């Protein structure tokens, strides 16, 4: 099954109920739905929250940026690699300095020694620049962008933008999750082969694309 691609929140098997009235409905499913930013739009966090208008738990555009985890890993790897090179050069310098104790070898190894010391300085400068760049990844481009723009969180299904920390139904009752039996799909008894089942499910695929304010455009997609 393919769930919302960016949020990685699995579809649960619950009923949404209310403690104050007879509200009872299946939790909104996002199987075969991909949620992504439009071309040129920076990625926002996508979370599952309760929507008063839909009376269900739905996916929300949060208007908050995401961390540059992969870039941070790459920068750390680059820094570590240069530190290893510096250690190797320092070992070589120690060996050469032993030879340079002898006057007649100073002329032979002096230039190489100076070259290695310059190389270390160059690596140290690169590490300093990478460290500064690494600090900048703590606040990624998308985080900076959405912090400045400050768009309201929005339900991707209806555009409702009033998000509360504690889910409450319009009647004032508490909204509850109640486990339910998992729905049995058509292929449970092997009535159709996997390839045919996949093709049938592919027709259901939809793509939800959001702009920087969380406005959604829905289109049909392909699982391939």
In short:
By secondary structure, the protein is an alpha+beta fold. The protein has four helices and nine strands; from the N terminus they run βββββαααββαββ. The strands form three sheets. It has a three-stranded antiparallel beta sheet with strand order 2-1-7, with no helix packed on it.
Structure, described:
This protein is an alpha+beta fold. The chain folds into two domains: 14-66 and 153-220, no CATH class; 69-136. Helix content is 37%, strand content 19%. It has a three-stranded antiparallel sheet with strand order 2-1-7, with no helix packed on it. The chain has a three-stranded mixed sheet with strand order 3-8-9, with no helix packed on it. β1 (14-18) and β2 (24-26) form a beta hairpin. The longest helix is centred in the middle third of the chain and has 34 residues, at 103-136. The chain starts with 13 loop residues before the first strand and ends with a strand. Residues 1-12 and 182-194 have low confidence and may be disordered.
């Amino acid at each position: 099954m393919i769930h919302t691609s960016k949020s990685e929140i699995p579809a649960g098997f619950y009923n949404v109920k209310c403690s104050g009235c007879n509200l009872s409905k299946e939790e909104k499913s996002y199987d075969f739905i991909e949620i992504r930013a439009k071309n040129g739009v920076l990625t926002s966090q996508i979370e599952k929250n309760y929507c008063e208008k839909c009376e269900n738990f739905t996916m929300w555009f949060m208007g908050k940026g995401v961390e540059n985890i992969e870039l941070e890993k790459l920068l750390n790897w680059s820094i570590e690699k240069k530190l290893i090179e510096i250690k190797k050069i320092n070992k070589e310098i120690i060996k050469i300095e032993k030879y340079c104790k002898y006057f007649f070898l100073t002329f032979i190894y002096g230039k190489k020694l100076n070259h290695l010391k310059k190389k270390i300085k160059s690596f140290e400068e690169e590490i300093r620049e990478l460290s500064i760049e690494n600090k900048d990844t703590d606040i990624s481009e998308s985080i900076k962008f959405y912090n400045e723009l400050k768009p309201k969180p929005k339900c991707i299904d209806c555009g409702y933008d009033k998000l509360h920390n504690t889910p409450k139904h319009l009647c004032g009752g508490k909204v509850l999750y109640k486990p339910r039996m998992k729905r049995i799909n058509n292929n449970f008894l092997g009535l159709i082969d996997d390839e045919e089942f996949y093709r049938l499910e592919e027709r259901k695929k939809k793509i939800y694309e959001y702009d920087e304010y969380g406005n959604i455009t829905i289109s049909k997609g392909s699982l391939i």
